[in-house]
Design goal:
Length: 98
Amino acid sequence: MASDPDGIRDRAWVEHRRPPVDNLDEPMWIAEDPVTDCAGVGRVEAEAIGNLVAVVTEYERRDESGSPLLKLPGSVVARPSVRAGSSRSVFDRLRSLF
């Protein structure tokens, strides 16, 4: 699969969360790619989308398939897996990393 930044941006799901929702200390944006299940997080929407594009590009360059990636401001980590049928939101899963 070839990385296409515009394609990644077009298909991204983007959410904005603010405290006290989901026990966040500051407002955060999350952009998620439904094709690779990778996600990017940022303090502003553009940062979250940019982090998503970067992490999807990295994920697609891998020779072997692996778990989806999550790019937080400043770091990349393996994205926690989600069980089929899980009702946990993206932010519930993200919060477990902090």
